[in-house]
Design brief:
The structure holds two protein chains of two kinds. In chain A, the strands form seven sheets. A five-stranded parallel β-sheet of chain A has the order 5-2-1-9-19, with helices on one face. Chain A has a four-stranded parallel β-sheet with strand order 13-12-11-17. In chain A, β20 and β21 form a beta hairpin. By secondary structure, chain A is of the alpha/beta class. Chain A has two domains: 182 residues, 3-Layer(bba) Sandwich (FAD/NAD(P)-binding domain), CATH 3.50.50; 151 residues, 3-Layer(bba) Sandwich (FAD/NAD(P)-binding domain), CATH 3.50.50.60. In chain A, α1 packs parallel to α7. Chain A is 26% helix and 26% strand. Chain B is of the alpha/beta class. Chain B has two domains: 27 residues; 338 residues, Aldolase class I (TIM Barrel). The longest helix of chain B is centred in the N-terminal third of the chain and has 40 residues. Chain B is globular, with a radius of gyration of 31 Å. Classes of the chains: A alpha/beta, B alpha/beta. At the A-B interface, α3 of A face α4, α5 and α14 of B.
Amino acid sequence: MPMPSGTGRVRVVVLGAHFGGLAVLHWLHRLVAKAVDVVVVAAKPYAVFKPDLVFSAYARPRFVGAARIDLSDVCRRLGVRLVVDYALAVEPDLRRVRLANRPPLPYDVLFLATGMDWAWELIPGLGPETGFLCEDYASRHVAARMAGWRGGRIALWAGPLVQGPASPPAPTACECPLVEWVLMAHGHLRSQGRRTATRFALVTPARALGEELGPRAQARVAAHLAGAGVQVVTGARVREVTADGVVFESADGRVRRMRPDLSVWMPPAAGSALARRSGLDDGWGWVPTDGHMRHVALPDLYAVGDINAVTVPKRGHTAMVQARVAVHHLARRLGRRVQAPPYRPSSLSLLHLGGGRALLDWTQGRQEVMWEGRGPHLLKRAFSWAYRRGGGGLPLMP
Amino acid sequence: MVPVALLAMVLAAGFVGAAATAVAAVYALRRLAHRWEDRLADVSGLGPVELVLAGEAVPVRDAVLTLQRAAHAVPAAVPMESPARDWLSQVRFDPATLCPPARPPRPAVRLEVQLGPGAVVPLRLAFPLLLSGMGWGVGVSDDVRQVLAEAGALTGVAVVSGEGPPLPVELETLPRWVWQWGRSSWQRTHASLPSAMIELQVGQASEGGTEVRKPARHLPRVVRRADARGELRIAAGLPLPLDVWVRRAREAGGGVPVAVKLPASQHLEEDLALATAAGVDVVVLDGAGAGTASSPAVLADHLAIPTPVAAARAHRWLTRRGLRQGVSLVVSGRVHGAADMAKLLALGADAVAVGTVALMALAHGQVADVLPGRAPTSLVLAKGADGPRRLDRDLAAERLANWLVATRDELALLCQSLGVGDVRDLGVRHLVAETPQAARVLGIAWYGGGAPSPPPAVPQIEALARDVLAAGRQARRAWARLAAAGASPPSSGAGT
């Protein structure tokens, strides 16, 4: 049981306000609002709805404004204190978080939801300047490049995921945004009659593209990419990025060089530097937890979302499910009569295919449910709208 | 017939009227000119003409500063750069012609540089440029800091924090974030921040190392909390002995380079001796005229020696002492584009830092929105953040990224034109002075003093070496064939 503060309420600190952190805030508000004082620490005063960043394939650069969620507004609605600061380290012995610009922040219960880190250093010559999708400013820059696109070669690269032996194996963090991006760019250029001037290539270290999807969805994605004329290179290992192109080793061992006019990366991903600095990780930067997302050695510390060692693929839906599991477990510890079942890995993907169509794929174990067409597209747009309007909360949370 | 006569009369009257008006106008203009001529000769009645004459004698800058001092009784300050002797405009590039020839675009010119090569984790830059220290709240607004971070990340250059506190978003965004550990009270507690380089700020060209007081109302709340006296103080002098300071920074940095930032002074060789003895990896020299947000003009306009001179002298000193391979040199102050960058790199710098020009680039497209009621600086400086209009961050970041990309490409273009395949190979042999004074001060050839010494024909030498090696390989293969056939190879030194 966590130690209550002087007010008799439990001091809960949530680090990070992405999918996992926002879901934690909403679940805390729903289940234990009267029993906790919540502080959320975020480096920016806004959150970004990252699934919408794939619209950089054809949208104007200003589209990123619509993907941002004002955190001060969300926090006001949920009765949460927002601290815009950078967490330097967690000191679990002292039960406090060291911040860059403020005195240490004490806690009784801590939720770690800061996500993973981009491991640019894994590939010589690689850096944010080579172009990537996963942050609002980077996606805006890609959109600016596409706005002035006159034709040439566009290469999409999936970087490797570095994990420890205890984590479920996965070659990449998530390839789906690259698939969505290339299919939407293809559709957009074709609708403008400019498709023939552009060649697409998608390069991944995975043996098959979209390994995080079920087999049926994988087959559909492969068919869509083939139909769009996208060259797919699997089993590739990028050796170096230079001003003269990207050098990589293909699955057959041949060393090749590609000179794209525009590169779009899903960067290499590694565990969290914050977890490493704080000694909370499994040796690889990922936080090891039990089935309720609770740290294996620190009972008052939960880790949800990408930072958790079991989270594969690194995806928003998984973070939201883990937030539910973790907060229900805390609520039960605080005396609320709620069910708190442990986390069961599952994967839900909703991929834009361009042309007003999308593909929904849900897998759990060997079960797979797939739905393709306009329905999933409308569902995804509705989800996006509701998520942003609800500040990370949905009427029906997963 | 009557209407025709009427029409003729009207036309005639109109013509006469127009002619009379013209005559009257000419007469009036002549009278006016005579009157002005008379008044110009009358010293007591110059009126507005006085302003023109005074403007010739007293520059506008001095007049504005005089009025500021008269109005507020405090040291006057003007944001942005100060005037300084412009040596760079007296330097031109010596183009590649027959030997060596200009380079084709492929293979691309190598622009990547490393600062602090002796450090465990050197700072790698996609091209040799840093966005200079412009502190959050102390100098520029939080919007500008975020724009700098985003543009820096998108182009692979480093961004220096300046004397303000670290903006959280730049710690999250920027892999090449340089923490400037300065002399202010709030900065000493931040030595453990994750940064790609730690810069110890001893002083800057616009202020020297003097004590600076900043009104707290312009500072971010997190800094204001550090001091409740209504203003914040950046102390004069070093907070620690330099060697101790460097050691602490090295411990805090975990292997990243440690730099020291100094105003470029006439005694810079002595400064370099002390700094290198203390073990710094990078020396940053801030030259005359470097930009500032609110430094006293009496300092900013008159302190320090020009940047190109500092670059040339520091490079010479480090080279003569055999320290050039281990200590990187960064210079800043009145750098406006790729040509200035290339000249400074050729004079010996490893990288340059820019500030004012980056602010101009990021504000492009938004200045008209604040004119004429507000100054353009209100878009970017910290005190402008209280105003009604905030910077459009997305637009500003893209503008600055565009400027950085264009500057990078222009630098590559210059290198191509000089026959240089690696920006690190730029040297004084690629420069030529337009005046004998510039040639003497900067140590480069003057085009009026005879032909500059020809650059070494590196490609020719390389080609010759390749031919010699190839010939050697062929000879070895031939001897191997002969040996296999039973002949013995010639002994060393044997004639052919």
